[in-house]
What we know:
By secondary structure, the protein is of the alpha/beta class. It is about 30% helix and about 20% strand.
Amino acid sequence: MDGDCEPQPGQxxxxxxxxxxxxxxxxVGSHGVGARVALVRPSHTLPISLTGTDCALKxxxxxxxxxxxxxxxxxxxADGYTSCLISGGCDLQGRVPLGAxxxxxxxxxxxxxxxxxxxxxxxxxxxxxxxxxxxxSFDIVGDDRTIxxxxxxxxxxADYKRTYAMLRRHGRVVPHLTLGLYxxxxxxxxxxxxxxxxxxxxxxxxxxxxPTPGTRYADCCPPxxxxxxxxxxxxxVVLGDVPVYLGCMRPGGRYRxxxxxxxxxxxxxxxxxxxxxAVEMALAQRLxxxxxxxxxxxxxx
Length: 301
């Protein structure tokens, strides 16, 4: 990330945790002494791509770069893993080719849970994977321009609403919302929150745009830490009892050290790959901390 994007520390640091976070925590969010927060390091979830590194869209924030960190389905061996993230590149309609490698997926699913990225799949396209569909992580968007210019799709927010509603008829769906997806700018996130409150959700995973080398947004800055924290607080108000998680995609370095403890202060109940500052925050506030080792949307008895 460009150095100009790094948040400027406004107060002294206690260890690695911003003093501002420690001072603010008791006054905001839903946490009290003994409240639970889950810290996640998804080492037991194998990320699998159904398309290798191929993607027709080459979205502005990703450009296929994130597929390079996944295992191609024809090379996947899941020994030692208790779950899999099943994803891949999209076609020009924003769909992941779900029908590919069903025999191999059936083998991998034995004794494991699957978290799926399906894109704008149709009902016909998801039917073959229903026996292996434990949960879907579905990206929601609240702005037509973002869909066109970031994803390059001839689609609208209404298409995302319809797909989300359809998927929920067939199984568990946990919506994901990327803050600052439009090159770090706020565009439609509040509208997405409103329609999600209308349609319902069992949880919301918040992500933050990462300026990624090799993408069109490589030189963009993510939204400010303070604006992300403010949005987390608004999400808690708008969604009521719906738990809010902070997911794996967000900038690292100083940004994460600043954001993560403030996110806990603002009320997130689960955070993936937390900065040490967040762990210190949870302990300082005497929260009941648990550790998980799979994708944050994986649910086990």
